Amino acid sequence: MEMTLRWYGSKFDSVTLEQIRQIPMVKGVITTLYDTTPGQIWEQDRVNAMKEEVEAAGLRLSGIESVNIHDDIKVGLPSRDQYIENYITTLEHLGKADIHMVCYNFMPVFDWTRSDLKKPLPDGSTCLSYDQELVDKLDFEAMLSDMEANSDGFVLPGWEPERMARVKELFELYKDVDEEKLFQNLVYFLKAIMPTCKKYGINMAIHPDDPAWPVFNLPRIITGKEKIQRLLDAVPDKENGLTLCTGSLGSNPKNDIPDMIRSFKGRIHFGHVRNVIHLAPGKFDEAPHPSCLGSLDMYEIMKALHDIGFDGPIRPDHGRLIWGEVAMPGYGLYDRALGATYLYGLWEAICRNAK
Ligand code: DNO
To answer: How many CB atoms lie within 10 A of CB 87?
Structure first.
């Protein structure tokens, strides 16, 4: 297991590489070219510069989160083949720079969703939270302006303004796309890119849908064990794998995460390890990482990763905003650093017990 932290690049992140370097046991970062748009080719010189910047700070570039997928690929429009070609070129450039893990998602229109980006907690910190009842009362545009108003000027991943400007058009595009079509379009995309992934040793790690159920009547297909297994079977190459995101899958209490980890042995290429607390059906807060503060058993999750011999990158996922920090919601320094240290502590104890 390699402990990492997500980093958005010096132009976009309030956290610096120097700060990340000082978190005990964090050896790498997961980053991206945050100013590229889905469908755009990532030029070789920009990929190389991104890697050099990370390495100059004494860290490893452990993977990309995300190379986003153009909606024409998700919808299955004739123009998808050109966008797939562009994606392949980006993968070639990453492979040539010796980068071997790419996290992406296949959620229609928007990425992860929360109804509150700054829910005040009794200890004075704030967290991200979700309440389906509140979301049901909103139309998508109201939710969008709410999110913009509460993100302190940071661009949230998956909610980039140029995408959101086309939101009505995007909803229209997806009108005839049901779960089955979306699934087939994902399989089509993966089959097309697998030869390149094999040539360069790139593991694709699909991120689960967050929350793990349909939102605004849009289909969601990476929500639980059977659906994920179906995808892994449809494209059986080991390069077609998963980002095991405990918070996204864990939004649905029916998902048994340690069991999923054991079932998906060999196909998990990246881990997002964080806790959630279930408050009511369809309602949860993002909790601090320790098991006793949320609904997930983080020890059992780390133990399952250890038992399958997982040796890829993991990262603490969203943290609360604590100690007065102003940062992108979910992506401050302090609570994620505490999360990394806690997860590493569990890992050390599990490794020593196993001896
Ligand atoms: C949210 C993240 C997601 C994730 C993408 C992967 O904070 O977990 O935006 O990066 O879904 O493509």
So the answer is: 27
Dist CA 122 CA 201 (whole Å): 47
Tell me the catalytic residues.
Answer: 207, 245, 272, 317-318, 331
Distance 352 CA to ligand 1 centre (A): 32
- What single letter denotes the amino acid at residue 161? P
Supply the pTM of this predicted model: 0.97
Which structure tokens are listed for 301? 């999750």
Q: Which secondary-structure segment (H or E) carries 102? A: strand 101-104
Q: Alpha-carbon distance 143 to 120, whole Å?
A: 19
Q: Label the pairing between strands 116-120 and 126-131.
A: antiparallel
Taking the CB of residue 21, how many other CB atoms lie within 10 A of it? Answer: 14
- Evaluate whether 108 touches 219 at the Cβ level (below 8 Å): yes
Does ligand 1 come within 6 angstroms of the Cβ of 211? no
- Residue numbers in the chain where pLDDT is lower than 50: none
- pLDDT tens digits, residue range 273-322? 999 999 999 999 999 999 999 999 999 999 999 999 999 999 999 999 99
* 49 Cα to the center of ligand 1, angstroms: 23
d(CA 59, CA 287): 28
**Packing angle, helices 44-56 and 80-96, rounded to 10:** 40
Nearest-5° Cα angle at 239, 103 to 253: 55
Strand partners, 61: 29
